[in-house]
Fold:
Amino acid sequence: MLELVFKRLMLGLVTIWLVSVIIFLGVEALPGDACTAILERDAFGDALKACRQAMGLNDPALSRYLSWASAALHGDLGISANGQESISQMVGYRVRNSLLLAAGALSVGIPLAICLGTLAGLKRDSWVDILFSTGAIFAMTIPEFVAATILILVFAIWLGWVPAIVLTPADAQPLEFFPEFILAALVLTMLMVAHVMRMVRSSVIDAMASDYVQMATLKGVPYWRIVLRHALPNALLPAINVIALTVAWLLGGVVVVEVVFNYPGLGRLLVDAISGRDLPVVQAITLIVAATYVGVNLVADILSLALNPRLRSHRMRQG
Amino acid sequence: MSRGQIILRDMLARPSGAIGLTLVTVHLLLALTSPAIVPFDYKTMNALDTLAGPSGAHWLGTDHLGRDVLTRVLLGGREALLVTGIATPIALLWGGLAGIYLGLRGGWIDEVAMRLVDAFLALPGILPLLVLITVFGSGGEVLMPTLAFFFGIPVIRVARAAAHEVVARDFISAARARGHRPLDIVRRELLPNVTDTLLVEGAMRWSWMLLGFSALSFLGFGVSPPRPDWGLMISDARVYMSLAPLGVIAPVVALSSLIIGINLTADALAKTLGLDQSRKAVV
Structure:
């Protein structure tokens, strides 16, 4: 068990390291550097040379990578290309806001997804199942910005129940976001419920068809007890990894949703940084998201190892 | 009947296949013929007639610059279909070949390559595309190779897994024992056995690529104005949503129907080929 956990941990670290190398090389391949960005039109001759000297841009790529990476390990993500701002400070509130949004979506979404998925799985092929499953497919296929736009049109404009976009600044108190971020959280909840629900549904169907459930039924165990005590605990194990993937996606992949609702999270900062070609910020955010993704998946792997002894005896599946 | 015809007939016999193929066909036909049938020029503005509701002249009204919404919706899928239509086969080809090679070869090259794949996939959703755009730039023409590159990476994993299953079988050992060269084994033994998996994968990738492309357009990194594109139209028109809701609804319906059509088609294809294991995990 410990050996497996250690192996997963190492793999995760290797992945993060590779991501950092890919990001660094990608930025390296670009024309222009931090100095041409800062100096803009004055970027020639002595000024450019002096700036490059001061920022250590003349050092070999390897030593620059090492100093960037080691600073990042200490929580210092460098300074942004235009404003001379510390990226760590810039990103701090944004990370919190994205976490807030994710927490809102997860706290509603996961219980809901488990309930709906179980119900659909138990009542397989009934109208409930067909309704939920079709709904899930629609939620999964329609692009986020389309779903978000439709929700704004219906709930904010036609019905006027909630504000259409978020106007609260990034460094506001968490509670100040409350009425404004409902629609954004709703879009994320919808997408998440669709993914997790499908997973739960199929594993509930598998569990209900298993020998131990048949055994319990023949023994005369009441139906609700079979579902709650025998089927669900086993059915929810595979869902852990899907939930982890969804969490990771919520933290990083919500770019579009944050832009649609003008929500001051990490995703919108990234889009702004790309539009403004602020490379250090892009680098930093990408690294944060990759580390989160790997971290969350690692936790999920360890959790399912801890909860499911069967996984420990087999060689763990890769990837 | 050829195998293709049989597959097509089976797909049409399923409700999902019939609806999906119809939607996709209609979209493709419209994309091909729309320049000839649109009632207006897509970039002619009219300052006196902005954000108008539906009328005899403008069936779906006009946008914030007085351009005809119907015209722009009819033309709005062409660039997306062209770019993804070329990028999908390329992604499938390079990802598929790389995956098959790795599956057959194994060893340390395989190990290293898969770690790289993991690293690329450790960035969820649209993020890696955004990073690639930062590196290579935005706009429809630049996006094609970017999309083809990025969407090929998950294909590697799928093709590798499919190849792994085949490699373990006896007929590969037999071919090896007969002394065939690796390339011949790939062409004659492996490819025919993984084509079905790759076809289904390709259909799914196509819909994801379209999603990605329109999301990028929506964010302002895709098709450049004034060219019409659904993602861009939704982005422009949502500001005026309370005045002219049709400006948003029309591209939303167009884009959604195409993506749902492709998904239904992929679903029917997977079921027809017997590859339907709900393995559409989050990527």
Remarks:
- The first helix of chain A runs from residue 2 to 28.
- The radius of gyration of chain A is 24 Å.
- The domain at 92-272 of chain A is CATH 1.10.3720.10 (MetI-like fold).
- The mean pLDDT of chain A is 79.
